[in-house]
Amino acid sequence: MKALMPRIEISLSQIRHNARMLCQLYGKKGISLMGVSKAVLGDPFIAEAMIQGGVKFIADSRIENIQKMKSAGIATRFVLLRTALSQAESVVSNADISLNTELETVKELSYYANAHNKIHQIIVMAELGDLREGILPCDFHEFIKQTLSLSHIKIIGIGCNLACYGGIKPDGLKMSELSKLADTIEREFQLKLEIISGGNSANYEWYESAQEVGRINNLRLGESILLGNETVNRKAIQGLKTNAFKLFAEVIESKEKPSLPFGEICQDAFGDVPIFLDRGIRRRVIIALGRQDILVSGLKSNDNLEILGSSSDHVVLDSNNDDLKVGSEVNFHLDYGGILAAMTSPFIKKQFVKV
Ligand SMILES: Cc1ncc(COP(=O)(O)O)c(C=O)c1O
């Protein structure tokens, strides 16, 4: 039987291995892990591999992904990473815990939790400088005070998210700020916070260099589990597998052509005016994959091919004069953006492999 293309091959054993190694590593200093499943569209098999590796929660930004995992029988504590006011009822019905920063939204969650006869658990996110979601420390106490008056909400933790939007490093200073915030909130409101969630895959460097982790007892990891690297410098973490995902695509044209387009230059399909280097006649390869499927910048050829450009349905490569045949397959390593796009594309087949 012909192999399916394009396809993404996924090694569950490598993902399980990474989750296990990271749980062991972070567990040494009392840090539990949430496995973040959003980049893999809440794939139940991948979530299960993370759970087998030891993660205590599965966190996703989309309710639909959580629903998919629950329907597939994944049993764990589900955390919603991004909460929208308009989805409050669905959040309460589907997630055990949600991350929150807006009082309006938390009031709505309380309303629907009451209607469903539930207590909804929340983690309140602090803004520590990255400028994506978060409540500024100066407004944090008021938020907690108001939230504590809501009958069907339980604050089970606080957290922060760095190195995502603003590229701010989760260093010792940021982590001790979060620890101090946890201490003062607990003291002021006579609360016991179960979770102090210090961040994501960018927290590795801080963790490795920290003498002690303060109150931080949880991290939410996506990329480190899936790709085996940290995200401050995108360095591989020792002992982790970095090739759990591989993308395969079919060669649909292979010809020797000039490297410089000929004719009058105008805009390309995406409104850019491309610039090319004249390298003479080269063997060029086109694969049946395009921007509708993949973040092309997230691809790295495992076959020594150079990506020259792309349109919605085509990626054009320089084959380095390798005479690739039409119908043959080429494969790529994917970065996080590449995995996110490939797993989301309905055109890319998902195939689990035993490696
Ligand atoms: C709030 C939040 N926490 C954690 C993560 C996981 O980040 P990373 O994949 O870098 O570990 C993300 C992003 O996916 C996120 O949005």
TrEMBL record:
Cofactor(s), by name: pyridoxal 5'-phosphate
Cross-referenced InterPro entries: Ala_racemase (IPR000821), Ala_racemase_N (IPR001608), PLP-binding_barrel (IPR029066)
Keyword Lipid metabolism set for record: no
Keywords: Isomerase, Pyridoxal phosphate
Gene3D superfamilies xrefs: Alanine racemase (3.20.20.10)
Domain (Alanine racemase N-terminal): residue spans on this chain: 10-225
Protein name, UniProt field: Alanine/ornithine racemase family PLP-dependent enzyme
Organism expressing this protein natively: Gomphosphaeria aponina SAG 52.96 = DSM 107014
